[in-house]
Amino acid sequence: MNCPKCDRFTPDESFKCLNCGAIIRIVKNEYEPRPDQPFSSPFRNRKVTTILAVAAVLVIGFLVVQGIGKGGSHAVNAGAPGEETDISTLAQKGKTTIFDFYSDYCPPCRKISPLLQKLDDQREDIVVVKLDINRKDAKGIDWTSPLARQYNLRSIPYFVIFDAAGEKIADGQDAAQQVFSFLTKANIQ
Among 46, 66, 110, 157, whose CB has the most other CB atoms within 10 angstroms? Predict the structure, then answer.
């Protein structure tokens, strides 16, 4: 046990310090804040720690639900970003599917992403599917990734649109014009 006054080890369990003679307060609960200490961390209190842990789990859960929800900001290829993907198998029947090829290193991609999310949220007949062209650990836009080469990407964001029947109806500039038309009609800016 250390003396609160001289901070030296006191070998016995008495109430008086053998070094300086100060009265030693016995703390029954080691997590109880001590008034003789200038700062007592709230993390020493089990109740506070439990509350903070539960709050952290709730916040993380909320963020995951927001990100992975309908048309969320996560790429469908998050498990293998940048790898070849047959997008025709990802087109949703009965809805217009907009494929958004993007990179986190692309400022225009980051700018249009929340607008596409709003479009996806507002229009029940449209779904936006995001595809990350960057392989893991790529720095900058990964133009040589298998996915970028598969679709011969030269600029991003790059869009491909499938109709409700699952047929490709537009890609590249034509698809971009349709996407901007959808955003304008939905009054999303």
Answer: 157
